[in-house]
Amino acid sequence: MTAASEIFLPVRDYDLAATLDSGQVFRWRQVENSWHGVVGGNFVKLAQIPDGIRAETFPAVEKWDWLREFLQPELDFVAVLNSFPDDEPMRNAVAACRGLRLLRQEPWECLASFICSSTKQIVQIRQIVEMLCQKFGDPIEHRGGPAERRKQPRDSGFLPKAATPALFAFPSPQKIAAATEAELRECKMGFRAPSLLNAAREVAGGCCDLEKIRKMDYATARAELMKLRGVGEKIADCVLLFAYGFDGAFPVDVWVERALQNLYFSRRRASEKRLRKFAATYFGPHAGYAQQYLFHYMRTKHHD
DNA sequence: AGCCAGGCTTGGT
DNA sequence: ACCAAGCATGGC
Fold first, then answer.
1. A182 touches strand B (CB under 7 A)
2. Nearest-nucleotide field for A253 (CA, C1')
């Protein structure tokens, strides 16, 4: 039962590194030529190979539907690219990183992570989420041996970072609901702690049904998520896009706002409201995908 | 409407 | 080395 299992997913135009490091997910780490992470309670290693992705799990699994759901390799990616507006900024953004994809995450992990994300930079979100998993997550069987819970959330300096892959599942709503605000604050999430605690209680108690949201239309689903403390328009849109696959969701953070301002309204300053209205119609049915390209382009290549 | 909420990173000295 | 400013979102 402790052996590994392996699968090859044939897919083109899939840049694993860009995708796993683009601020959608916060637990993936690059180890040499592969990426280590946890999906659906499974420890998994992913590697980019010429015509696809190679995946390994420890211990072995028999079914891979959970991984296909997460990676979405069967998406008609070219159709998505073709749906983008044919203008210079979009062409540049796509050329800068063709193969950047949207993942399909588990709703609770995505919601909880993005509640912790407000006014944080990606490095800090990673730290918070990792501490949360170490403190509250169930250990994941890993290379045949049981995981050991480290005493300190931060690296002590003894263990080289490369030797400490993700060993804990993302904690369930029930587990977080049973925590105290003070315990959550130990994960350095500051004022987001009461919001996370509230969300965990709403979900664990059934008042917020994350599965029901799948069947709602975009506007209803968005309003439902925004009932939660600490979830405004931006975080709701992130969850709708990254966990539920609402491709029309277009999260506007300061990076995207700057991208829209600089790339599409460079001649005169546009109000935030005007930028949102523009974005809501201009980018088409896969606006969320377009947003991810603009976001990545602004953060990596485009400087002025 | 404008300020506040942590903590880490960046920039200036 | 130090301290200030910046980051970036939602609630009141």
1. no
2. C8
Please state the pTM of the whole predicted model.
0.92
Length of chain A measured in residues = 304
Cα A211 to the center of its chain, rounded Å: 18
Q: What is the pLDDT of residues A75-130, one digit of tens each?
A: 999 999 999 999 999 999 999 999 999 999 999 999 999 999 998 989 999 999 99
Strand C nucleotides, any atom under 7 Å from protein beta carbons: they are: 6-12
Nearest residue by alpha-carbon distance to C1' of B9: A121
Question: What sections of A103-205 are H helices per DSSP?
Answer: 107-115, 122-136, 173-177, 181-185, 193-204
A182's CB contacts (< 8 A; 6+ apart) are none
Is the shortest CB-to-strand distance from A232 to strand C under 7 Å? yes
Q: Quickly tell me which residue has 């039962």 as its tokens.
A: A1
List of long-range contacts for A145-153, beta carbons under 8 Å, 24+ apart: A153/A186, A153/A187
| Nearest nucleotide to A114, CA against C1' atoms | C9
Question: Is residue A171 within 8 Å of A132, Cβ to Cβ?
Answer: yes
The answer to whether some atom of strand C lies closer than 7 Å to the beta carbon of A93 is no
Q: Using one digit for the tens of pLDDT, what is the confidence trace for A160-199?
A: 344 445 589 999 999 999 999 999 999 999 999 999 999 9
A254 strand C contact, CB < 7 Å:
yes
For strand B, give the nucleotides within 7 A of a protein CB: 5-9
